[in-house]
Design brief:
single chain, mainly beta, Hepatocyte Growth Factor, 4 domains, nine-stranded mixed β-sheet, six-stranded antiparallel β-sheet, 7 helices, about 15% helix, globular, Pan_app, Apple domain-containing protein
Length: about 475
């Protein structure tokens, strides 16, 4: 059974069971709101290019060492904050400068509802929830269906015409910060969307007739691809009830799509890459269902040895046309560049050996600190079958890196790089410092950390990226 570390908080929490599909684990999380002043006092680590599930797992692993018990996550940036919050932390409902964070009470193998886990066996069932997936915002909102008559106890904020239930929910969510909107009633016949501020709900009474017009209570906002098994809702009379997914692994979660979204769902993953020749970090959309529409090919480049290099060629087209995608084949080292087609609608399909990706937003990456660095170098790691591209720093005082481990008697710098790669999954190792004494110090990224002084006559390098490769790739432009 899971061990739940319960604490007393000053405001209502939203407890839920998240199912991490790739790891086949259920984790119990508690969403709470904390003031910005409290957040600044927490010990914090920042990780980039992490999914919400990965952020949860890393924090849970560090929990045993008392280094993490909560996370804050930015979906669009794939930015994960690992927080070590003190036991006497307090939360706020009134301060304007506040943030929602997720406390992690523990994880266990398998898929469970909350009522199937130790301390929550007495939860009253409140029926099932609807997962409203808002593709335009990359968000999922956990909502509860209630009969329209329940809205009598709500304050009406405003009435608008909207094209769909999804549009109505988006409007409520967007305005919740200003007017407290947390419920909607949408009538599909008249397209009337009513925004409501609903007080603490009463325990639900089972009703069987789901008419066309219902009230939806907005309970929990999460990143797009998070799977939720059940949610605990605090009601009046000190009663809590559980809203459950249709199955333990949320297989039958109902979706309400945004009206502007095409019916054929595109399966994709957001990620971030170093375009080091431009000293930028760019958001990339990796498309998994091997299909892209409304594009035309503008250039084919041969002998491109890495996906990262192919994305570099895409960057000027993004600047000029505000869109660029690539089809990359590692098998024949071919890079195709695509832009939006304005004259005709065209669809491209790729085979299993090709990678399909869109280059999205780019931003400068510590250009002043990196301006005097030499050109990056690449190393072949036989043990992992990778080529890793490293940028060596000339500066001796660096910000943004935190030492996590020092290894002795490391034979050479390539062995130091390999040690960093081995520890990537546990420590998120992103940089190394190798000395003449054969010491190898491994670093993670921490933008809040104080200046690190690089030892004299040593080499400090950041691992920009690693991709599958061969020894021959060391001599090519990777």
């Amino acid at each position: 059974l899971i061990v739940i570390l319960m604490q007393l908080w000053q405001c209502k929490s939203i407890l839920f069971a998240a199912y991490l599909k790739d790891d086949q684990m259920t984790c119990v999380l508690d969403q709470l709101e904390v003031s910005s002043s409290s957040l600044e006092l927490y010990e914090m680590q920042i990780l980039w290019n992490k999914t919400f599930d990965e952020c949860i797992l890393i924090c849970n692993l560090l929990h045993l060492e008392n280094k993490c018990n909560a996370i804050k996550y930015y979906q669009t940036l794939m930015k994960c904050y690992l927080l070590a919050a003190p036991i006497n932390s307090t939360t706020t409902e009134t301060q304007h400068q506040s943030y929602k964070i997720f406390f992690i009470y523990g994880c266990l193998k398998g898929s469970y509802y909350l009522h199937e886990i130790g301390n929550y066996s007495m939860l009253v069932s409140g029926g099932t929830f609807i997962s409203v997936q808002l593709e335009i915002l990359n968000l999922t909102i956990i909502t509860e269906r209630r009969p329209t008559v329940d809205s009598i106890r709500s304050k009406i904020i405003e009435n608008n015409e909207k094209a769909s239930t999804g549009d109505c929910v988006v409007t409520c969510y967007a305005r919740s910060w200003h007017n407290g909107c947390n419920a909607v009633v949408y009538n599909p016949k008249t397209s009337l969307c009513t925004l409501l501020k609903h007080e603490t709900p009463k325990p639900p009474i089972t009703f069987t007739h789901h008419g066309m017009t219902l009230m939806l209570l907005l309970h929990l906002v999460l990143p797009w691809d998070v799977k939720v098994n059940s949610v605990r809702i605090e009601a009046t009379h000190n009663i809590s009830y559980e809203l459950r997914a249709e199955s333990g692994t949320t297989k039958n979660t109902e979706k309400i799509r945004d009206p502007n979204t095409k019916q054929a769902k595109r399966i994709s993953t957001k990620s971030f890459v170093h375009l080091y020749r431009y000293m930028e970090v760019c958001e990339v959309n990796i498309i998994h269902n091997r299909k892209i529409e409304n594009v035309t090919r503008v250039q084919v480049i041969l002998n491109v040895r890495s996906l990262n290099r192919c994305l570099h060629f895409c960057r000027p087209w993004l600047r000029q046309f505000f869109y660029c995608a690539i089809i990359y084949s590692k098998h024949n080292y071919k890079c195709e560049l695509l832009i939006r087609s304005t004259e005709r609608s065209s669809t491209r399909f790729v085979d299993d050996e090709e990678k399909l990706a869109e280059l999205l937003n780019c931003h400068a990456d510590r250009q002043s600190q990196r301006r005097n660095n030499p050109p990056p170098m690449q190393y072949y790691l036989k043990e992992t079958g990778e080529i890793c591209v490293l940028e060596f720093y000339n500066a001796t005082q660096l910000r943004g890196f935190y030492p996590i481990e020092t290894l002795e008697n490391v034979e050479n710098i390539k062995s130091c790089i390999f040690a960093c790669r081995l520890r990537y999954s546990s420590y998120i190792c992103l940089a190394i410092n190798y000395t003449m004494k054969k010491q190898c110090t491994l670093f993670r990224q921490d933008l809040r950390h104080k200046i690190y002084n690089v030892e004299s006559q040593s080499l400090f390098a950041e691992i920009l990226f690693c991709e599958p490769g061969t020894l021959a790739d060391e001599i090519f432009d990777f």
